[in-house]
Amino acid sequence: MSVAGTTELVSLKGVSVSFGKKNVLENVDLCVEKRRIVTLIGPNGSGKTTLVKVLLGLQEVSSGRVQRATDMRIGYMPQKLHIDSTMPLTVGRFLGLSGANAQQCREALQRVAVAHLVESPVYGLSGGEMQRVLLARALSNKPDLLVLDEPVQGVDLAGQELLYQLIGQLRDELGCGVLMVSHDLHLVMAATDEVVCLNKHVCCHGSPQSVTANPAYLQLFGDKTAFYNHVHDHSHDLHGEVCAHEQPQKGSGDA
């Protein structure tokens, strides 16, 4: 695909996938660009998993076109990972299994604020810790495109917000594109630039505000999910600690 100056990392045009007589995806268009977070939503059986496999190059299409930027590096974070409790696998060793060297592992763990877990057993991690370790693994090769499948699964509400904040910070830091798959329609809407609503075909897409008002979205999900816009009077660092802000002096600002 690569065209000088383009921001497109991967582009799907008119992609359809069929298994026998069953149509799983029908005429799907999707584009992920550098520095953009795109979130893929849809009900169970809507084709989200198949679409991710197409994007990763793991599933051939029945028709349509898939274009990827030349020499693009992809970091993939799976929805879940089952680790045998009897397996003596540390976090550092787990990241090393992806082919990353020790320095790359340390840097990736530092980026997601869990460097202190490098010698910890993977099986003993909490839900939030495990998601950060999986994210670190996806970051270990400094990807151009991050593909995150349910990145906040098993994490409590406060932890979800912090993880979404972290994903946004990583996008800014690395300049990468991000494709997230999510069922979490509440928090994720405030953490994405574009939403693609899938039900075998693309029902609607656009900004979170426009998608949640779209009749196709409302038909699938109803009006129970309001757009989430969490307003802070403070911010958090990557560890979840509150960062202090200078208070404005009295009398300053507009009247």
Shape summary: globular
Question: Based on DSSP secondary structure assignment, what is the total number of beta strands?
Answer: 11
What is the CA-CA span between the terminal residues?
53 Å
Tell me the β content. Answer: 25-35%
User: What is the element string, with H for helices and E for strands?
Assistant: EEEHEEHHHEHEEEHHEE
- Rg, rounded, reads 20 Å
Kindly state the percentage of residues in helix.
25-40%
CATH topology of the largest domain: Rossmann fold
> Helix tally?
7
Describe how the helices and strands are arranged:
Elements: E1 8-19, E2 22-33, E3 37-41, H1 48-56, E4 63-68, E5 74-77, H2 91-96, H3 102-111, H4 127-139, E6 145-149, H5 157-174, E7 177-181, E8 194-199, E9 201-206, H6 208-212, H7 215-221, E10 235-236, E11 242-243
Parallel strand pairs: 3-7, 3-8, 5-6, 6-7
Antiparallel strand pairs: 1-2, 1-4, 8-9, 10-11
Helix pairs in contact: 3-4
Describe the protein:
- The chain is α/β, with parallel strands linked by helices and 255 residues long.
- The chain has seven helices and eleven strands.
- It has helices at residues 48-56, 91-96, 102-111, 127-139, 157-174, 208-212, 215-221; strands at residues 8-19, 22-33, 37-41, 63-68, 74-77, 145-149, 177-181, 194-199, 201-206, 235-236, 242-243.
- A hairpin with a 5-residue loop joins strand 10 (235-236) and strand 11.
- The chain is globular.
- The model is unreliable at 1-5 and 226-255 (pLDDT under 50).
